[in-house]
Design goal:
By secondary structure, the protein is an alpha+beta fold. The protein has helices at 2-20, 26-29, 34-41, 53-62, 70-73, 80-85, 95-98, 103-106, 154-157, 161-164, 186-192, 222-225; strands at 109-113, 120-123, 133-136, 148-151, 166-168, 174-177, 195-197, 210-212, 229-236, 239-246, 259-268, 271-275, 288-295, 298-300, 308-312, 319-325, 334-342, 363-371. It folds into 2 domains: 2-212, no CATH class; 222-371, Immunoglobulins (Immunoglobulin-like). It contains 12 helices and 18 strands. The strands form 6 sheets. Strands 11, 12, 13, 14, 15, 17 and 18 form a 7-stranded antiparallel beta sheet that branches. The protein has a 3-stranded antiparallel beta sheet with strand order 9-10-16, with no helix packed on it. The protein has a two-stranded antiparallel ribbon with strand order 1-2.
Length: 373
């Protein structure tokens, strides 16, 4: 009980600190950082409670009266405490609500407080009447009439760990896990924010010529999602071996709503003569990567209420071999091993509106083909 009271006091104190800061909306950044702004607008960070209806439906299903997800999904809300406690609702006319994970939020993280339930981003406190200081990794940044700038080691160490580390529900069940406690943000930045051409500012006073991409590349990018996993296959007599290697520094499955699975087929001419499952990918339990949640031994879709969980995953840098008994191959037979992702598992349809059902459609991540000689 003492721990819970301390945690609640800490969270509410941090929320109140954030609310003291004079807010600069996303669009105000475009004047000087046009290319970065355009990149950011294509990212998942730019989506808010109002533009991501699947998240909206899950959040409402998890807590009908309060919006606890606001800590990470609406972090600069000027009434964050009220949203979390259920004393206020998201407001589509409030810029601090509609900006999503805003430019201002990420660039005012002073440090990250580690906690059991989820980590907490502590925002820099600003003196009233002064222009805010925005943090980053750039040495000797240019002066700006909009804000001051300063380097902060949190941006190579822990900036991503505030929201992308872990989340534990009220029943002490992990519902999201992306990073180990010993990891830092360098791995995230190298992959998801690679250096690209173009200065950080529209008027590049120091001719830097490059900046960290703010597209935050991820599963929605077709080329990017093919890079995280190696698939190797071999055939010997009537045995097919598929070796999966997770090259990423985080598990294959991070988000509770998603599923990734292998579809393996053998084609002879125009006919499929063998497949690793008949109707549903989940029939092949070893090749279906997803979380499963239950409450009182009954399956539940929304993990906020879960009291038990299970997951088939591929951990960071882990290799796994799957072996199948198949029919004898003939010359010209084609073996296809394809990895797919569903942005929402099939059972999520129960809490989705019709326009979001498309998120359950599998997207190809990677495919490997072997032809018998």
């Amino acid at each position: 009980m003492k721990y819970f009271i301390f945690f609640l006091f800490l969270m509410l104190s941090i929320i109140s600190w954030a609310q003291e800061t004079k807010y600069m909306d996303n669009y105000s950044c475009k004047e000087c950082h046009e290319q970065i702004y355009d990149e950011y607008q294509t990212s998942a960070h730019s989506q808010s409670f109002f533009s991501n209806t699947f998240h909206q439906d899950i959040a409402k299903e998890a807590h009908a009266q309060k919006y606890e997800c606001a800590v990470c999904h609406m972090p600069m809300a000027n009434n964050l405490q009220e949203l979390v406690e259920g004393k206020a609702k998201p407001d589509i006319n409030n810029k601090t609500h509609t900006d999503g994970v805003s430019c201002f939020f990420c660039h005012t993280i002073a440090y990250v407080k580690k906690s059991h339930k989820y980590n907490i981003n502590v925002q820099a406190r600003q003196a009233e009447g002064y222009k805010p200081t925005l943090y980053g990794t750039l040495m000797n940044p240019d002066d700006s009439d909009k804000h001051s700038s300063a380097t902060n080691p949190v941006y190579t160490a822990n900036a991503c760990k505030g929201c992308h580390s872990h989340k534990v529900n009220d029943n002490n069940i992990t519902v999201f896990r992306s990073m180990e406690s010993a990891q830092n943000s360098k791995d995230c930045i190298i992959c998801h924010m690679p250096e690209i051409q173009g200065g950080a500012e529209k008027i590049d006073k120091r001719s830097r010529g490059h900046h960290a991409s703010h597209k935050f590349l991820g599963i929605h990018d077709e080329a990017f999602r093919a890079t995280g996993l190696d698939i190797n296959l071999s055939v010997e007599n009537e045995q097919l071996s598929v070796t999966l290697t997770n090259k990423m520094t985080h598990p294959l499955i991070i988000q509770a709503a998603r599923a990734k699975f292998l579809q393996i087929t053998i084609e002879r001419g125009n006919e499929i003569i063998w497949k690793n499952y008949q109707k549903k990918p989940s029939e092949d339990k070893e090749a279906y990567f997803a979380y499963s949640f239950a409450a009182d031994n009954r399956h539940v879709v929304v993990p906020a209420t879960a009291t038990q969980s299970a997951v088939n995953n591929l951990e960071a840098k882990e290799t796994k071999q799957l072996v199948y008994k198949i029919l004898p191959l003939q010359k010209g037979d084609k073996v296809k091993v394809a990895l797919y992702v569903q942005l929402a598992r099939d059972d999520c349809k129960k809490v989705m509106r019709d326009e979001d059902i498309k998120l359950t459609q599998p997207l190809l991540m990677k495919e490997v083909v072997y032809i018998q000689k």
